[in-house]
Amino acid sequence: MSMTNTTLTYTYADLPELMGLMTGDEKHGPAATSTLDVLWVLYDRVLRVSPDGMTDPERDRFLLSKGHGPMAYYAVLAAKGFLPVEWLPGFGSYDSPLGHHPDRTLVPGAEIGSGSLGHGLPIAVGTALGLRAQGLDEPRVWALIGDAELDEGSNHEAIAFAGPAGLDRLHTVVVDNSSATYARPGGIAARFEAAGWSALTVDGRDHEALYTAFTAPHPGRPHVVVAQVEPKSA
């Protein structure tokens, strides 16, 4: 089954213009731009999901945990037809469905309400377990987290559980813009590998490298891609 949206109105080159439609004092610009390339490659080439298939039980699930800078997410959803481009200029306003944190009850295509650091990966683990319990073996679960979220203990509990549980439909992307408080010996990937995950580290701006890493085989194990981008302070 292929559920990728094939009606492409916008391209990657249009995303800066779409993001530019969203203004305001709480844009969290660096948090948004750090995720732009990851989001585009996922929605353009990897995720089996489309605007008309959001209730299909066989769809892939994408969970944005790094939800405190959602402009790139909204821009990609608009580019792929999940929500009207006309909504973008109202970002963050009182009567706009596009809040400073995505709300799954208001934003078409959003699987979870997000923004609280450390909650997305645990929800993704639960989602993968739930799909397994229902006998749904095709849907993949993707969670996008920021490196600073690894300061939260809830993520380490999720990492420690998912590996031994063999949740091979679970995928995580860690966007690493050097925001984490604590260094990790061997880097971020080593933390996941120690818990039995398949792990790759790539340039988070290189679309081909991202695609290759996202689609790498990892039988019997959950998979993490660490997407390194420029430091937040750069």
UniProtKB/TrEMBL annotation:
Signal peptide region: none
One Pfam family in the UniProt entry: Transketolase_N
Top-level division of the source organism's lineage: Bacteria
Domain Transketolase N-terminal, residue spans: 28-215
Coiled coil region boundaries: none
InterPro entries, A to Z: THDP-binding, Transketolase_N
Named cofactor requirement(s): thiamine diphosphate
Keyword Cell inner membrane in annotation: no
UniProt entry keywords in alphabetical sequence: Thiamine pyrophosphate
UniProt keyword annotation of ATP-binding present: no
Family, similarity comment: Belongs to the transketolase family.
Designated name of the protein: Transketolase
Classification of source organism: Bacteria, Bacillati, Actinomycetota, Actinomycetes, Kitasatosporales
